[in-house]
Amino acid sequence: xxxxxxxxxxxxxxxxxxxxxxxxxxxxxxxxxxxxxxxxxxxxxxxxxxxxxxxxxxxxxxxxxxxxxx
Length: 70
Fold this sequence. Notes:
Layout: H1 2-19, H2 24-31, H3 35-42, H4 50-60, H5 64-68
């Protein structure tokens, strides 16, 4: 289940980022996280803590639930 949730999260972040025409680096800047962090999330190499999940949702201007819904 955790792998599935991480996969959904990774897919949604990438989809929303690309819809905006943003690079991983730009999204990281908007969210206040390191540029490699976004790439690691999208490649399923990182677990995301709730604080960073909120930062990413805020940066993308979506509710946290939108990042976890397939």
